Input
Amino acid sequence: MSPKKQAEAAGSHLSILRFSTAGSVDDGKSTLIGRLLHDSGNVYEDHLAALEASAKKSGSERVSLALLTDGLKAEREQGITIDVAYRYFSTPRRRFILADSPGHVQYTRNMATGASTVDLTIVLVDARSGIIEQTKRHAFIAALLGVPRLVLAVNKMDLVGYAEERFQDIVADFTEFSAKLGVREITFIPVSALEGDNVVERSGKMPWYSGQTVLEHLESVYIAGDQNLVDFRFPVQYVLNPSQNFRGYAGTVSSGVIRVGEEVVVLPSLRRSKVKAIVSAGDQMCGLQKSEASSRDAVVLQLEHQLDISRGDMLVRPKNMPRVATNFDAMVVWLGDAPMDPSVRYIIRHSTRESKALVTGIDYRIDIHTLGRSDPLPLQGNEIGRVSVATTTPLFVDPYQKNRSTGNFILVDPVTFLTVGAGMVIDRARSEDDADIGGNLHQEAALVTDREREARSGRKAVTVWMTGLSGSGKSTIAKGVERALFDDQVPVFYLDGDNLRHGLNKGLGFSREDRSENLRRAAEVAALMNRAGVSVICAFISPYAEDRVRAREIIGHERFLEVHVDAPLSICEARDPHGLYGKARSGEIKNFTGVSDPYEAPEAPSLRIRTASQPVDQSVAEIVSLVLRSSTV
Amino acid sequence: MHIPSHLEQLEAESIFIMREVAAQFERPVLMYSVGKDSSCLLRLAQKAFYPGKIPFTFLHVDTSYKFPEMYEFRDRTVKDLGVQLIVHRNEPALKDDANPYALGTQRCCALLKTGALLEALAKHEFDAAIGGARREEERSRAKERVFSFRDKHGQWDPKSQRPELWNLYNGRLGKGESMRVFPLSNWTEQDIWHYILQEQIPIVPLYYAKKRKMVVRGNMLIPVMESDPRTFQGHRVEEVMCRFRSLGCYHCTGAVRSEADTLEKIVSEMTQVTTSERATRIIDFDTDGSMEIKKREGYF
Output
């Protein structure tokens, strides 16, 4: 027998069921877990001996099975558990990983964490009290996190005389409530964890119940169908480049299946190639060649073409792409102690990609007690709400409902680096500002390429992005540059912030988000004009580095020339051509850059112009020269 | 469509974690402790970066009290793999003859393991240290994160740990802070043995049953080291057919009676086992919750 076969014979081939439990100590959750472990023969003798000793110490007759699952010393002393603990056990039919997320405090956050990876959640109900607010809350969180199936364990049946009627009432109540949740599969089991009825062993006291015990259900429930095998998504995790003749992209298939020879598209570059080989060290060591990789496989993909691909890129199929989005809606569970702050640019992690994100809007919060909607205030710790998110670079997202692995993200505080939010992308009609990747592809197929246009005109169009304080001299210089280049026969256009606000950007104000959107649209316009062969001179205060980074990405690194029009605030304020500083100082204008809002100076601009110490003509000449140098093909 | 078995799922998950470490950190180190879990870690690291080399430095925190078989195995493994190994000992403490007889296991561990580890991590400015700990091993580890955050003093605070959802690991660090990473978090002792069998992974021979000289104390078997008379002085020494379930320092590692002298026999013995792996570690008997105290102080 081969080693692999031997290991299989010993049980290495079993499937894993990941599940979580919800319910408070009062519902007997710890007892249920203890019972499950104990009766399935998964408690070590030395652990049991320790429990017996501590039972004796506290003068109790009965060994408390609940103690089996209590982890940390401090928590044991307080008698409560406050975090997610993982348990491992197995039966001859399956391996189990249990995410036990107990505790009264921080409940939402712990339960969401536990539920994020599981195939099933057991919700405990006390047969005496039936479906209470808390039961609904637990079921809601499980449904929110996309747990495909629930088990409602109606516990303490011994305390209601094992009455079928009581059980049926609870089943009816919950069935009515759960219709709204959208959970695929719900199973009801009457149990007594304390007495061991229907946990592992069938109960003789409830002859009216002919269904499975909790363990039987866990052992046999069908989960293989949960995998999304349709939408191929491969986030590049790590680039392997050990030698001249090997370049491979390491990662784990998030969903779907890919085979050698099939065509893939790289996001965000939209380059296409074909899968040359699927490298899997395990198979290779056994002299096998892998021809297919599917959901959850950790592999290395080699492509036929040499492309520039790095961590955070995603390989997908040409006709099945995720949304490439910088704006999306999401349900967010707030994990942080400090409330969500709409002015903070959080670090967002999605698959292997990282960006910065602003919460640009809050649609509503969920009232965790009634599950109704409440006022759209920033989320506090342990609150859930529907929000709009804007990122500085595009993410490749699917709706969480459709794809659990590419629909989730976390928000990280940029100062403390704590994980403060967990999000699930919501499907919504594509708004006009989301790049429709399918559309871009059709454009790619246009018969005239950018290169051909450049070859004909003999030059490459560029964008000069002038950033600086109000009154630093941007507009004056920009107009001068436009005139000079035009006179030099260079196709050029000056894009003025104020002018755009009269048309394309009508309706946008001066809030952080609106300013950001204003700049994004300007960048898109500049990008289009550049592709059409016209160089663009942009003059925007554009105070945030992040917005400029995004503009650079929209326009393209090779076309984007950042020019910092640098003048001390005191000089700008003295110039004050439109009287704005005065109004800002008096408080009439809010969020005014330099006065009541920060200006983040560029660290390494293509050119820095100090308008306090040199005449306008010289500044114009420097920029014209930069443009002529950069636009040479 | 192939449905992955639990071992394949665990392997893929661990490989993913290894690659995250390589991608997210600047100076990652792999804690190599020579035991069976370390052997599995090594194989997983090889697979994660195949056909490239393992992009981690290796670190062995050596108490000087390991079994000779462990040192031999370590040196051979490192040579075969061609990796860079740093061995770090708390030399001042050893010069003062730190040992568990004089100090008790708590103090001894604090100096030779915890102290030496923190020293080594600080000295080489490692920002991430990969270890082979499993959540199933010990109660206090059940809620350990895969990416376990340590403050500037290398300390672990259960309250400052970051929630881990899905497979999104947040490895961001401030100055002086570090991360311990546990790719084997979801593995059980049984999984480890299945994997060693399936992959034919080399392990230290002490794991195989053999007649060995032991001091028998209750149902504990304490190994006799010819080189260290303290291990047998004043006790009756017996030859016992036994093996080690987990390996540590020879003072503090008990053996178990066993006939399992092949991997197949070990795997089948593991399916019958009724005590936890740590029952053979003398270290855990000190005080209730002793592992948790060590962890707070920075022990792995």
Remarks:
- Chain A has four domains: 15-226, 233-316, 323-438, 447-630.
- The two ends of chain A are 66 Å apart (CA to CA).
